[in-house]
Amino acid sequence: MSETERGCRRFLTAFTLLLVGAASAQAHGEWLFRETAIMGTRCAVELWTDDRAHGLALIDDVFAEMRRIDALMSTYKPESELSRLNARAGRRPVQVSAELFDLIETAVDYSRVTHGAFDITYASVGYLYDFRSHKRPGSAAIATGLANVDYRKLKFSAGPRTLAFMNPGMRIDLGGIAKGYAVDRGIAILQRAGVKDAMVNAGGDTRILGDRRGQPWMVGVRDPNDRDKVALRIPLENASISTSGDYERFFDEGGVRYHHIIDPKTGDSARALRSATVIATTSLRADALSTSVFVLGPERGIELINELGDVDAVVVTPEGKLLYSNGLAPP
Ligand code: AMP
Ligand code: MG
């Protein structure tokens, strides 16, 4: 196996069998691919179908579901349910939809698992950054915002299904988990419709259903220094892969990169890695953990992934080194 091609054994058990089966799998049908912009990023669906019209309608359904989730959870849309929650929950408990309530609870589960490296209340300081206009907070504003960063200060009441912020200045942002959630919802639509082989992608989050008609999908992990180069290719089937990188939303100032993944302990961008890629069964898990590993850095990040046991990771360090979790390490 070449240096840039690692087998992910956990997610690729039937590779050889599938290659043998490929010759007989010549059923008629075609791959359909469509992409569009949703959630401020490029989203794509590719699926195998023998009914073109039905396949295209399913792709539209997946994009419609992603738009619905964006309308619910975007912090850029003042009328979204999440924006209305942020505007009011610092003063009194706010009733939320079951869907949003569950996702916020899931996000807090990841805060516990990562000891606060993943924390949706990071937004209490995160909202002070604007990467497009190169805006960042000074140390006094960071200190004020940091006082409101703590997932333990989210008060859930399951009965009335309300959420309250214990500090008035708190905010939450689901940007580290919502795309993965949307990808899972898209895959579920395709599965229910009987699709066997498909790929759904939203920015850095991808989930693969089945395989590529007898072969695994080859998913590339980008070289953080060159968007046209691939640092690594991973063969995958029935798996999700998410990459968090410091090249998605950023600006450079005085030789320092300010980007969208914030360390909840410092209120500053996390800088111990250039990218973190996680492979998991669901896209939500891969998404939440890729952001988490990015914040945790190489040692603690890989350690967490090895402890969890059901996931794998590869990270790119600032020096350009690739480090792998146990399941991805060469035999
Ligand atoms: P991703 O590209 O999946 O790593 O997600 C990055 C996004 O997650 C950012 O744009 C923020 O919306 C959000 N985010 C940034 N830092 C954190 C953090 N420490 N915990 C949870 N979400 C975060
Ligand atoms: Mg993520």
Description:
The protein has 331 residues and is an alpha+beta fold. Helix content is 32%, strand content 26%. The strands form 4 sheets. Strands 1-2-6-7-10-13-14-15 form an 8-stranded antiparallel β-sheet. α2 runs antiparallel to α7, α7 (178-192) runs antiparallel to α8 and α8 runs antiparallel to α9. Bound molecules: adenosine monophosphate (AMP) and magnesium ion (MG). Residues 118-120, 122, 126, 173, 175-176, 204, 244, 248, 260-262, 264, 287, 290-291, 294-295 line the site of adenosine monophosphate.
Present the secondary structure layout.
Elements: H1 15-22, E1 30-38, E2 41-49, H2 52-73, H3 81-88, E3 94-95, H4 98-113, H5 123-126, H6 139-146, E4 154-157, E5 162-165, H7 178-192, E6 198-202, E7 205-209, E8 217-223, E9 226-236, E10 239-245, E11 250-253, E12 256-259, E13 275-280, H8 283-296, H9 298-308, E14 312-316, E15 322-324
Helix pairs in contact: 2-7, 7-8, 8-9
- Rg, nearest Å: 20 Å
Q: Give the DSSP E fraction (strand runs of 2 or more residues).
A: 25-35%
What strand order characterises the main sheet?
1-2-6-7-10-13-14-15
Could you list the spans in which at least 5 consecutive residues all have pLDDT below 50?
A: 13-25
Distance between the termini: 10 Å
Sequence of secondary-structure elements: HEEHHEHHHEEHEEEEEEEEHHEE
For the largest beta-sheet, the strand count, sense and barrel status come to: 8 strands, antiparallel
Return the average pLDDT rounded to an integer. 93
State the total count of DSSP E strands.
15
Structural class: alpha+beta
- Label the overall shape: globular
Counting DSSP H or I runs of 4 or more residues, the number of helices is: 9
